[in-house]
Design a protein that fits this description.
Helix content is about 35%, strand content about 20%. By secondary structure, the protein is α/β, with parallel strands linked by helices. It folds into two domains: about 5-190, Rossmann fold; about 200-425, 3-Layer(aba) Sandwich (Rossmann fold), CATH 3.40.50.
Amino acid sequence: MAKHELVLILDFGGQYTQLIARRVREFHVFCEIIPFDTPLETLTARNPKAMILSGGPASVYAASAPVCDTAVFEVGVPVLGICYGAQLMARLLGGSVEHAPAGEYGKTIVKLDEISSLFRGLPTETSCWMSHTDRIGMVPPGFRTTASTPACPIAAMENPDRRQYGIQFHPEVVHTPVGRDILQHFLFDAAGCSGDWTMSGFVDDAIQDIRSRIGDERALCALSGGVDSSVAATLVHRAIGDRLTCVFVDTGLLRAGEGDRVESVFHRRFDIPLVRIDASTRFFASLKGVTEPEKKRKAIGAAFIDCFAEQARAMQGIPFLVQGTLYPDVIESGSSVASTIKSHHNVGGLPAELGFDLVEPLRDLFKDEVRAMGEALGLPKEIVWRHPFPGPGLAVRCIGEVTKKRLDILREADAIVVAEIKQAGLL
């Protein structure tokens, strides 16, 4: 992504951090979520157009509170702090943060000052989404207050000369009606972004990058049959042709007929070399007695990795492994500050001794962006818009232990739901 403008989002563990990135991408501005404690030299080496400090569950004055390098504010690029990020900005730059007499949660009426470039042309009074128990008590030197609520006299602040802005409420959620406008003002007016990131450009760049990286070597792709691995396989095949071999581990947990459809699309229609492994017996054995969804995910992930690793060892001399890892997979798998939402077997799960050089061409993309790529690559609608997840999905949706009888019943019910969705024109 070095060819495009970049906005860096410093993650302080906020529940909406991923949503901030989604909103920025919607303006065709490329962004990345990075840990709050990323070294300053790493940040500056990326040459960002702007930085956003996310929300977070901690209090900025707590001993264990996550804190970024104060020099972030000296880099010379616009900075937007949201919720915790705004409070941290105030505290680090010489203002104060205090425990609020009354917290604010949910829809809140806020007064905006049009003197702020972020609020230009917006209603002077509107609703916003709040979620905080602390508040900014005093703005730092050089800052001015630009928004307020009855319980939060400093609901926004800014230093326009340094292009530094703090907002206590959440512009990234739909419950803040003017939130998109605020982010648009920050990205284009304050940061001077042009919105140069498009999917068609990404596809062309990705193909060139894959060819450059793999060269004349061969690659394996761990194909689950889902949207992500399907798009990754098609993209890499477009780049290196028959030097890609897909390994399709049929878990026995797919929807009715999906295994055959995957084989038909990739082997027969796209003529991509494919090895299909019937591993249903192994997967049912790994799920015996398991009832908790996250434990099911881990059991399925471990079995998938074992099956794939066995096949990879049998196909010696292939140095590259293609995975359909997405940006949300990485985010949801947790970090030093963000909690794990759910585990993903394609994030740090493959045994290191296999010695693969990973190729993850979708690692920077969200799901809707991957679907757009799938359409651009010519994948059929039933693959791009399959509903919604063929890997551990049915097993996780199965109440209690996964048995063949229960899964068959679930398949029938699922087929009815999908048929109704299609009939309604929603798929």
